[in-house]
Write a structure and sequence with these properties.
Layout: H1 2-7, H2 9-28, H3 32-59, H4 65-100
Helix pairs in contact: 2-3, 2-4, 3-4
């Protein structure tokens, strides 16, 4: 995890967004279980993506279409998990946030 923190800007951004989501969940009284599960899913996939990229670079230091396909597919898994987390975050956070702000 230290390696990913050091070299992967996206991992640092995702950790910061996870901390923000956890803080928001606490402030709004939203259950932490789905927030923690989604956070773990996104961060785990980002770590796997980082590992796959390193292995791909080791196995194919020069450009190869199959290496690109492997990297893009792993990145797609992270994107799918991130979009899912975002949409479920809206579902979980929007109603209590609107109520807290007096807009519902």
């Amino acid at each position: 995890m230290r390696y990913a923190w050091r070299v992967q800007r996206n991992f640092r951004v995702e950790v910061c967004l996870a901390a923000l989501a956890l803080g928001l969940a606490l402030w709004l009284g939203v259950s932490l279980v789905p927030v923690l599960l989604l956070t773990a899913l996104v961060l785990s996939l980002e770590l796997l993506n980082t590992a796959l990229e390193a292995l791909t670079d080791l196995a194919s230091p020069v450009y190869h279409p199959l290496a690109k396909r492997a990297k893009d597919t792993a990145a797609g898994a992270v994107l799918l998990a991130s979009l899912t987390a975002f949409l479920l975050g809206l579902y979980l956070f929007l109603p209590p946030l609107l109520a807290r702000l007096g807009l519902s």
